[in-house]
Amino acid sequence: MKILNIGSLNIDHVYRVDHVVAPGETLSSTELNLFCGGKGLNQSIAAARAGTQVWHAGKIGNDGAMLVSSLRECGVHTDLIQVSDGIPTGHAIIQVDRHGQNCIIVHGGANTSITPEDIDGFLSHFSAGDIFLTQNEISSLPYALEQAKKKGMLVALNPSPIGDLASSPALDWVDIFILNEVEGLQITGESNPQEICTALLRRYPRCKVMLTLGKSGCLYAEEGRRTSHGIYDTAAVDTTAAGDTFVGYFLSGLCLGNSIEDILTTASKASAIAVSRAGASVSIPDRQEVASADIHLISRG
Ligand code: RIB
Q1: For residue 300, is pLDDT > 70?
Q2: Which residue in 12, 112, 120, 215 has its CB near the most CB atoms, within 10 A?
Q3: CA–CA dist 283, 280 (Å, integer)
Q4: 92 Cα to the center of ligand 1, angstroms
Q5: 12 contacts: CB under 8 Å, gap ≥ 6
Q6: How far is the CA of 152 from the centre of ligand 1 (A)?
Q7: What angle is formed at CA 12 by the lines to CA 24 and CA 22, rounded to 5 degrees?
């Protein structure tokens, strides 16, 4: 089983600030770093570092070669990435405050030049039983979900950033939702984690739900089963890509046929390690590091 991720590729401009800038305020940053990012790229790298064969498909501009190199170095297949002439690579402006919390502005750039024809081309290399992963940072997303499902692929969606996707009929094509509470609230209208899962399973009865809950851990749900897990103790340096790390490790665990308990443990540890480091994709650990990490569960979830 292999993973096709049609996902975003961004250059992250990460500014260290005391606090997130307020309306009307001008704020000096103490540090600026450029990192490889994009929810798509981060999730491909996480799944590859977790031990799965991943193909990343998407679009960059002429300025995006560093993103392809970084994916390749992590073992992600990059032959399906195209260069969109005249449209710059997507980028993000990220503020990280003194507590490691972030806020992000994304400019889609080449990620938003993906057409239905591009989607058909990407999907033509995959078949029934392969996993299709995507997020809400590319164009032609509803078409991609529908075509992947019609092909018999297992369709996994991280509906982030949620936007108009919350009410899209294209969610009907999804087999696995990997989402946080905010996205869960916007899709279902429920704020309680158990109620979010109940509402999603009622609306999409055959789906699996992986709900991440920040400091409260995570909750997995499918028909007839619920499993929760807590978080691990690490000092937060930068929370960017913690959610992406979880997504990649979770899907990789499913691909490898691991038990849900094992998958939740490994994905939660990997995310905790990512939070303890600066940057997006550079903060994602590989599976050896996760397996040998000396970190402790501080909440039971
Ligand atoms: O989830 C973190 C990512 O969101 C960043 O890397 C940024 O590029 C945005 O896509």
Answers
A1: no
A2: 12
A3: 6
A4: 7
A5: 34, 35, 36, 37, 38, 91, 92, 94, 240, 279, 280
A6: 29
A7: 15
Half-sphere exposure of 177 (CA within 13 A, CB side): 35
219 lines ligand 1 (CB under 6 A): no
**Model pTM above 0.85:** yes
Contact 200, 208 (CB under 8 A): no
**Domain map (residue ranges) of the chain:** 3-292
Q: Rounded to the nearest 10 degrees, how much is the dihedral formed by the CA atoms of 183, 184, 187, 188?
A: -160
Is 211 near ligand 1, meaning CB less than 6 Å away?
A: no
Residue with token string 């994009």? 38
Collapsing DSSP states into helix, strand and coil, what is residue 278? coil
Distance 135 CA to ligand 1 centre (A): 11
The tens digit of pLDDT for each residue in 241-298 reads: 999 999 999 999 999 999 999 999 999 999 999 999 988 889 999 999 999 998 999 8
